[in-house]
Design brief:
298 residues; alpha/beta; 2 domains
Length: 298
């Protein structure tokens, strides 16, 4: 059994699930999800980390057609280590441990692990699931209810030479640590991305702007006259907007796992995806494996 300790928002959860599902497939074993993180309150500095203790984030993956069930408490207990076992486990080589904790930026090959194992980490790289990409794509198919309620915008997107633009602000601006580590992208990133897109595409493009602060985007990003602004001010619309973003022919993403996944799920074989070259604002994180080779870094 692979027991995935799930945490974070939708994009982070998707990276974790993709890595765990790929490993479970590789080992021909079952995958179960431990959601105990969402039963507690988690603090970052002196502020509550977003809204991760609310039920919406606890169950957000079920807006997709994922196949892995939640682990029962008995299943979680059966794989957990006691104090002595934890000490022994830490003395083993990383690929032989019962509890695997990712070391970001390292060259750890997830597929060296054996079952049973507890997975903890972010796994923010395609390398953790690339051999099983088709399976991951099928797991992240959006449920029919999401497709049905977004038909109007979906038809408009599909009938145009569409480019999605994701502008992430919110906690990237208001939360001290998020602002320090990530920070909202500058306007010149979007203007340079726009210039690249329009240089590459022959036809007139239509932009679909997705932002957690749509009014700010309208007032400050005056680059896109032929644009639709989509309101992402409510957590309940997150998956709907990821679905619509993924339908666009091309993407200009933010330094956000949310729009990373929208771009990755775009099935267009000729898509242009533009991503920020500098993902983190001021942090010593290794991002060499974060952006797929076929995407354009600006």
């Amino acid at each position: 059994m692979i027991l995935l300790y799930l945490k974070g928002g939708i994009g982070n959860q998707m990276f974790q699930y993709a890595a765990a599902k790929a490993l479970a497939t590789h080992l021909s074993t079952t995958l179960k999800i431990d959601k105990s993180y969402y039963d507690e309150k988690h603090y970052e500095g002196d502020e509550l980390t977003r809204y991760f203790n609310i039920p919406y984030f606890r169950d957000i993956l079920h807006f997709f057609n994922i196949t892995a069930p939640d682990a029962t408490q008995a299943e979680i207990n059966s794989i957990q280590l006691n104090t002595f076992q934890k000490i022994i486990d830490k003395l083993r080589p990383w690929h032989r441990r019962r509890k695997f904790i990712e070391i970001p930026g390292s060259d750890q090959d997830l597929f060296q692990l054996k079952s049973p194992v507890i997975l903890k980490g972010h796994f923010q790289s395609e390398k953790f699931f690339a051999p099983y990409a088709e399976i991951i794509q099928s797991e992240f198919q959006f449920r029919k209810s999401i497709i049905d309620r977004n038909k109007k915008f979906a038809e408009l997107i599909k009938s145009s030479n569409s480019v999605s633009i994701h502008i992430r602000r919110g906690d990237y601006v208001s939360h001290d640590r998020a602002n320090q580590v990530l920070g909202a992208l500058r306007e010149d990133y979007y203007s340079n991305a726009k210039a690249y897109i329009e240089n590459k595409l022959d036809r007139t493009v239509t932009y679909f702007v997705f932002s957690d602060e749509p009014q700010w985007a309208k007032e400050n990003l005056q680059l896109f006259s032929n644009a639709y602004f989509i309101d992402n001010s409510s957590a309940e619309t997150d998956v709907d907007e990821m679905y619509l973003m993924s339908l666009c022919s091309n993407q200009i993403i933010a330094n956000s796992s949310f729009s990373w996944w929208a771009a990755w799920l775009n099935p267009n074989p000729d898509k242009i995806v533009i991503a920020p070259k500098k993902w983190f604002n001021n942090a010593p994180y290794d991002t060499r494996d974060l952006i797929p080779d076929s995407w354009i870094k600006i």
